Amino acid sequence: MHRGSIIRKNEYHDSVFLMRVARRISEEENIDQAALFMGTEKNKGILVELGFPAQDLAAATPSDLILAVKARDEKSLAAVLENLDGWLRPEPGRADTPSFRDLGEALSRQPLANLAVISVPGAYAAHEAQRALERGLNVFVFSDNVPVEREIFLKRYARERGLIVMGPDCGTAIIGGIGVGFANRVRRGPIGVIGASGTGLQEFTTLVHRAGSGISQAIGTGSRDLSDEVGGISMLSALDALEADPSTKTVAILSKPPGPLALACLIPRLMQCAKPLVVCFLGRKKELGPADIACQTARTLDEAAALAVQNATGHPPIRTEPDNARFEALISREREGMNPLQKYVRGLFAGGTFCYQAQQVFMDAGLTAFSNVPISGNHKLSDSLMSREHSLIDMGADEFTVGRPHPMIDSRQRRERLLAESKDPEMAVLVLDFLLGFNASADPAGDLASSIAEAKGAAKKRGGFLSVVASVCGTAEDPQGLERQVARLEEVGGVILPSSAQAARFAAVLAVRTEGGV
Amino acid sequence: MSDTLKELLEHGPNAVNIGVQDFADSLKAQGAEAVQVNWAPPAGGDAEMIALLDQLL
Fold first, then answer.
1. Using CB atoms within 10 A of its CB, is residue A518 exposed (0-12), middle (13-18) or buried (19+)?
2. pLDDT in the model for residue A345
3. Which of A20, A63, A88, A114 to mutate to test the interface with B (most CBs of B within 10 A)?
4. Cα–Cα distance between B38 and A100 in angstroms, integer?
5. Is 50 exceeded by the pLDDT of residue A518?
6. Edge-to-edge, what's the strand order for the sheet holding A115-118?
7. What is the three-state SS of A236-283?
8. Pairing status of strand A65-71 against strand A2-8
9. Is A90 on the interface with B (CB under 8 A)?
10. ipTM of this predicted complex?
């Protein structure tokens, strides 16, 4: 093994671009591993863990680029390290987007700009957001790790000026028919939605589209907006905006259950809302507040989408439960080949909200689970890398993504975990989610298909059967194509349910029946 | 609600993208206006100093 690294002073590239370049380098002959990082302390720590000497990296600062490579021979190592400029050349076929030195220069060229999209490292994001708000722009902050007191300051500043801050940690928005961040291509229509979760918004908007209706606006607030500290400032601004938006007939709100103080601020505003409301505080139904709030409540994202479509279009409700006969037939088919050792469900989720929702669904079915992000009543895994009994894992959580790409854009970690789980003879069911849309992996199903087949093969060799249950969040119009993705998963024996809640329910029923031997 | 927010909701994003270039490219691919700021951390990357200055200003 030959290791080497170089530091390029004052050369910054975004992490998504660097991930793609590193992947291309890793695919070179005789190269075992390539990492391309900015020289932050965290990134340097990761490289030291990978075996690169700390003294070689000491000179790098967050403004400097580090290329670190493990190769099988000295010559291949030198060839990669010497070609850094070549690797960093812009990729062919990229959009011809004009670029500027700073915000001021960009605004002089684009004076009608109405939104700043910010995805710089969290430590700098609040500063950039503040500059953008001062210039009168609305702000979408994709970055996470922004201190909460800065978030509160930005949101108050924006609200006083009639602007909105979507984020920090905002993955998705669809504004005026245009997707921002990780969004899907959906029809325009009468339903406006506000969500604290990016994947929750993606699930809701795609299910509305697939039910034949459409989205007027989908506004992300960021994951902490309905905490007691932040108090739902962006939620209130978004409600004002959707109430005034002539294209919105029905308003939906999606979030994990808010803090009690945030909820107390929100309820009077909800009571005054002039448009029909559908509220989904995941897992909560009856305890929303005073009975006189004229809103419908849902426990799951698919139920919220069904209620919103029914409300906005007057069409009869869409089924959120699969046809019973088909469901039972599928359950029997999946259980048939399992052996008595197989008892447990393992969920490997790219979408954090899908992991949260699956835990709720399991709890409703009377099942407790282990998780790296357990909901109340579930157990925390002592090691996120080691599943126990029923385990539902958010693979997008910090411990998996600091310095490494999110599973929505790079499937490597999920693939490795899937293969590790496949060695456990007690695993009966594997639950997966696949997210399509702009900026997601070009082929999420294809990325995992061969590993799914391999895991199924391993179970078969042990005289058992591994049930793989999945949902695909996307539309036929997404760049990856919903039907193509579903077909790819079905080719390798996956059972594909129409929503993540249904996939979790299917897995829970399989687990209950297996436990009970029914 | 400000005119900028009204304009955003009615006509969609006219965006300045600061960070991951893919986000600007996907906006343009959908027909929206987008420009890119070639962001880089300040020399030395001193985020704490920036936060301090922001609070003073």
1. exposed
2. 98
3. A114
4. 6
5. no
6. A99-100, B33-37, B14-18, A115-118, A138-141, A165-166
7. HHHHHHHHHCCCCCEEEEEECCCCHHHHHHHHHHHHHCCCCEEEEECC
8. antiparallel
9. no
10. 0.91
Whether the Cβ atoms of residue A368 and residue A390 lie closer than 8 Å to each other = yes
CA angle A255, A351, A418 (to 5 degrees): 150
Cβ of residue A152 closer than 8 Å to a chain B Cβ = no
* Exposure of A245 in the CB half-sphere (CA atoms within 13 A): 31
**Distance of alpha carbon A210 from alpha carbon A302, whole angstroms:** 11
**pLDDT exceeds cutoff 90 at B9:** yes
Paired tokens of B57:
């200003």
Distance CA A7, CA A146 (A): 27
Residue A471 is which amino acid?
A: S
Residue B25 with chain A: CB contacts under 8 Å: 94-95, 97
- Which residue does chain B place closest to A105, by CA atoms? B37
Q: Length of chain A in residues, anyone?
A: 518
Residue B40's pLDDT is: 87
Among A268-282, A336-350, A504-518, the least confident range: A504-518
Helices (H) and strands (E) in chain B, counts: 3, 2
Tell me what percent of chain B is helix, strand and coil, each rounded to the nearest 5.
Answer: 55, 20, 30
Q: What distance in Å separates the CA atoms of residue A435 and residue A444, rounded to the nearest whole number?
A: 7
Side chain identity, residue A465: F
pLDDT tier at A1, thresholds 50, 70, 90? confident
How many angstroms separate the most distant Cα atoms in chain A? Answer: 74
Whether residues B16 and A142 touch (CB distance < 8 A) is answered with: no
Summarize pLDDT for A54-95 with one digit per residue, the tens.
Answer: 999 999 988 899 999 999 999 999 999 999 999 998 877 676
Q: How many helices (H) and strands (E) does chain A have?
A: 19, 21
What average pLDDT does range A407-419 have in this prediction? 93
pLDDT at B44 (0 to 100): 55
Q: Which of B4, B30, B57 best probes binding to A when mutated, by most A CB atoms within 10 angstroms?
A: B4
Tell me which DSSP letter residue B14 carries: E
pLDDT at A122 over 90: no
Closest approach of chain A CAs to the CA of B56, in angstroms?
12
Q: In this complex, is the C-beta atom of A240 within 8 Å of any C-beta atom belonging to chain B?
A: yes
Output the six-digit token pair for A209: 């589209």
Spatial CB neighbours of A249, under 8 Å, sequence gap ≥ 6: A190, A191, A216, A275, A276, A312
Q: Are B28 and A95 in contact (CB under 8 A)?
A: yes
Instruction: For residue A165, give Cα distances in angstroms to A114, A155, A158, A264, B7.
Output: 12, 6, 7, 21, 15
B45/A150 Cβ within 8 A: no
Q: Chain B contact for A168, CB < 8 A?
A: no
Q: What is the pLDDT of residue A514?
A: 85
CB contact under 8 A, B2 and A99: no
**Among B52, B27, B28, CA closest to A142:** B27
